[in-house]
Amino acid sequence: MHQPHSPQSSAPATGRGAASADSPAAAAMVDLRDVHLTLVGTAGPVNILRGLTLAIPAGQSVGVVGPSGSGKSTLLAVMAGLERAQGGQVQVAGQDLSRLGEDGLALFRRQRLGIVFQSFHLIPTMTALENVAVPLELAGRRDAFDRAESALDSVGLAHRRTHYPTQLSGGEQQRVALARAAAGEPDLLLADEPTGNLDATTGGGIVDLMFALQARHGTTLVLITHDEGLARACDRMVRISDGRITEDSGDAGADRAAAKAARAAGG
Ligand SMILES: Nc1ncnc2c1ncn2[C@@H]1O[C@H](COP(=O)(O)OP(=O)(O)OP(=O)(O)O)[C@@H](O)[C@H]1O
Ligand SMILES: [Mg+2]
């Protein structure tokens, strides 16, 4: 189903997801326009996203930063079709998410997305290995368990595969969640604080893994983080405040992307 991608570079890409200079929107993996979302809590309505516009070309890595409560996780939920925008347009991987029903959205997520939730969302009654393998099985991968084993291995958790989530540390749960999100080589990986519970060395390994996925498969990465160093290591950094984009480094990171691709190709 997935085409192998050549490593990313700042030169025009080829194949699906190719960005062309004259029609960037056509190649956008994420295209959000004037998105509005208000949720009603016990204390009344909260106007969370207030006209947020963001287009992300296929294959780009974007670090999203912003203060606590600014709407980052909500933005991720909108991109994943887990929250519906009340205004504006939400197009992801060429799909207008407002046109999909709940089943369609579930299928869309299974086939195209990998999501690392801020609170992991592992299934408590399944082992680490099952947590990673079951979504692959649901997506029809016959090699689900083999893939899951190697995904767990790549996050350094081969020795924990029979552990249940309650038998794992916070950082280990986070790594299982990352293995689950990455194992299917998604077109779009959405990660909410993927290194939030990890020490610098382990976190660095996880970040390398995500960038390797980007280089190898052309995966578009959206990494929500409080770590500005990680955000700056992405091709592009955007800042969100009060439910809007207030800063965008644009393509300033294109050189870094090329250097990263060269490193990935060499190693
Ligand atoms: N279901 C909900 N009902 C009402 N308000 C909500 C709901 N979910 C989130 N909010 C509010 O929306 C705002 C944005 O929340 P969100 O989780 O997107 O922030 P965030 O930028 O991810 O913050 P953090 O960095 O702390 O994770 C917060 O003020 C939060 O209290
Ligand atoms: Mg959050």
TrEMBL record:
Database matches in SMART domains: AAA
Chain positions covered by the region annotation Disordered: 1-22
PANTHER family, A to Z: IMPORT ATP-BINDING PROTEIN (PTHR24220)
Compositionally skewed regions (Polar residues) per UniProt: 1-12
Keywords assigned: ATP-binding, Nucleotide-binding, Transport
Presence of keyword ATP-binding: yes
Gene3D superfamilies attached to this UniProt entry: P-loop containing nucleotide triphosphate hydrolases (3.40.50.300)
Residues in the signal sequence: none
Protein name: ABC transporter ATP-binding protein
A family per Pfam: ABC_tran
